[in-house]
Specification:
By secondary structure, the chain is an alpha+beta fold. The protein has 2 domains: 15-148, Regulatory protein AraC (Jelly Rolls, Sandwich), CATH 2.60.120.280; 149-258, Arc Repressor Mutant, subunit A (Orthogonal Bundle). Helix content is 42%, strand content 23%. The protein contains 10 helices and 8 strands. Strands 1, 2, 3, 4, 5, 6, 7 and 8 form an 8-stranded antiparallel β-sheet that branches. Strand 3 (39-53) and strand 4 (56-60) form a beta hairpin. The chain is globular and about 65 Å long. The chain starts with 19 loop residues before the first strand and ends with a helix. Residues 158-255 form the HTH araC/xylS-type domain. GO terms for molecular function: DNA-binding transcription factor activity; sequence-specific DNA binding. It holds the Pfam family HTH_18.
């Protein structure tokens, strides 16, 4: 597979202005906050992509694609050596997709369409537009699989999530975290549900899965990843990872090894 493809020239500040293309990005590469007048699909054919807006962070492993509608300020971070594919969606096609940032499942057809859109130039007049229409049609039917970590607004809640972000593996209870943040367990539990739409346990599990994906992508073992991300044993990690990601961490690592480098 070539190191660079269509007009995309990574890593580069030009990326926000480039309509589409792809290239390999190094582990940890970060694109600063920016926005587009068009919609944007970013697909990591290998590696893991995290997209952050003021609404939170979305993580997409290789079988998912991120969607950012026009006008949303967002940034990207890549984990593992990432085969990044970028597809711009003209504004007149964006109404066919959800009006908020999200992550969608990538079926075999959509994967091949995204690769074709970013691997080669236009074969015949109108071919690119027809492929893009197929991609939008597939995304309109694809389930949202967001792996979304919402961003809190309440200062007390933000103090707790900042502590967890700094150390996802910390075993502190919500009551213990609340004492550090100056809020009661009951208040924080209510805020997690009303402001973030999920329980404290679910938010922390999602955070840990985000970090687990990055660890596995960088070559860590399943056992080491489980311990570093806060699970007391590999079995409980495997169960949580499979529920959220849709495959076991072992299968995820095996798929990573099978990907071209």
């Amino acid at each position: 597979m070539p190191e660079t493809r269509q007009p995309f020239t990574p890593p580069s500040k030009l990326w926000p202005t480039v309509p589409s293309g792809g290239g390999w990005l190094p582990h940890g590469y970060h694109l600063d906050p920016h926005s587009h007048t068009q919609g944007q699909l970013v697909y990591a054919a290998a590696g893991v992509l995290a997209t952050t807006t003021d609404r939170g962070t979305w993580v997409a492993p290789a079988h998912r694609v991120t969607w950012t509608p026009p006008g949303f300020v967002h940034s990207h971070r890549f984990y593992g050596r990432t085969d990044a594919r970028l597809v711009a969606v003209p504004a007149d096609l964006c109404d066919g997709l959800v009006a908020h940032p999200s992550v969608f499942a990538v079926n075999p057809l959509l994967r091949e369409v995204l690769l074709a859109l970013t691997d080669r130039g236009e074969i015949r007049p109108g071919a690119y537009a027809r492929l893009l229409a197929v991609a939008v049609d597939e995304l309109a039917e694809a389930p949202e699989q967001s792996l979304h970590l919402p961003e809190p607004r309440d200062d007390r809640l933000r103090a707790v999530t900042d502590l967890l972000q700094a150390d996802p593996g910390v075993a502190a209870t919500l009551a213990e975290l609340g004492r550090a943040a100056g809020a009661s367990e009951r208040t924080l539990s209510r805020l997690f549900h009303t402001e973030l739409g999920m329980s404290f346990h679910r938010w922390r599990t999602t955070l840990r899965i985000h970090h687990a994906l990055a660890h596995l992508t960088s070559g860590r073992s399943v056992t080491d990843t489980a311990m570093e991300c806060g699970w007391s044993n590999p079995s409980s990690f495997i169960e949580a990872f499979t529920e959220v990601v849709g495959q076991t961490p072992g299968r995820y690592r095996a798929d990573l090894k099978a990907q071209p480098r």
